[in-house]
Amino acid sequence: MEFKRICHRFGCCLRSTDPRDSLSELLLSCSRNTEQIPTRKAGGIIREALENEVNVMQKSSSVDLVTKTDQQVEQFIFTSIREKFPTHSFIGEESVAAGQPCVLTDNPTWIIDPVDGTTNFVHRFPFVAVSIGFVVKKEPEFGVVYSCVEDKMYTGKKGKGAYCNGLPLQVTDQTDINQSIITCEFGSDRSPEVVDKIFSTMRKILCIPVHGLRGVGTAATNMSLVASGVVEAYFEIGIHCWDIAAAAVIVTEAGGVVMNVDGGPFDLMSRRIVAANNKTIAARIVKEIDIFPAKRDDAPVEEKQ
Ligand SMILES: O=P(O)(O)OC[C@@]1(O)O[C@H](CO)[C@@H](O)[C@@H]1O
Ligand SMILES: [Mg+2]
Hints:
Blueprint: H1 3-10, H2 23-32, H3 38-50, E1 56-58, E2 65-67, H4 68-84, E3 89-92, H5 93-97, E4 109-116, H6 118-123, E5 129-136, E6 139-147, E7 152-157, E8 162-164, E9 167-168, E10 181-183, H7 192-206, E11 212-214, H8 219-227, E12 233-237, H9 241-253, E13 257-259, E14 272-276, H10 279-288, H11 301-304
Parallel strand pairs: 3-4, 10-11, 10-12
Antiparallel strand pairs: 1-2, 4-5, 5-6, 6-7, 7-8, 8-9, 12-14, 13-14
Magnesium ion is lined by residues 70, 93, 113, 115-116, 118.
């Protein structure tokens, strides 16, 4: 990879021109010059759209929403990045919804949620994030989450720390669950058996007791709040790889942990996650989660029908 050429095209420069620097090192240096990474421009498109009438469409159900803005922003991000990295792979929420395969290979892959919190966007509930994760050999390397109404640019790069608007992020050192705030979501599955599981889990965690349960309606932002040290953990079954690929790096680079809801290793495509400030809090949350099945992101298409 001719790094200097790519640097030049990104309009930024690496601290070192040593070709062993990983591509994500380049992207981190660019994320400081955020005008070069399409995240901020994408956020501007969303903010502008918030001023106008929104044309709401449905995906898997009447509560799984999508808008033209989701589709336009995803296309804008794809085009911007593909121009510079034509050999890379892409997984985008709206492309998958339109029938593109959701298969993660070892190839450098951009995993994108153009509008995380579409329901919030439709209702003007002020938590809407652009999430761009960069994954190499199936390992998240680099992530940017732009909470565009708040104008908070969260970035994280493996081995190089996590930042919000350039300031370093650090999870809390809280190990007492009784002194914690936990974030979670109701999800978009309204089947009684799933809703019962979600509520029974929330009830058990609330009655530990914890200081509070919260959720802002976007996984990427919930996880960025864990990385920011303002909540201790986030968990959910039903999210997708594009909701969490970027924020998983931000959480771990802020000193936190990510794992499966059964306490097993983090599995990007499993549609299940616990993100926490440390293993003590994560393990305590795992104990209370009533697990229900969710088709993997990389399951064969016919299985997802
Ligand atoms: O479809 P969207 O808006 O991109 O994202 C879906 C989502 O907001 O819904 C869940 C709430 O249950 C979140 O965890 C997740 O990020
Ligand atoms: Mg989305």
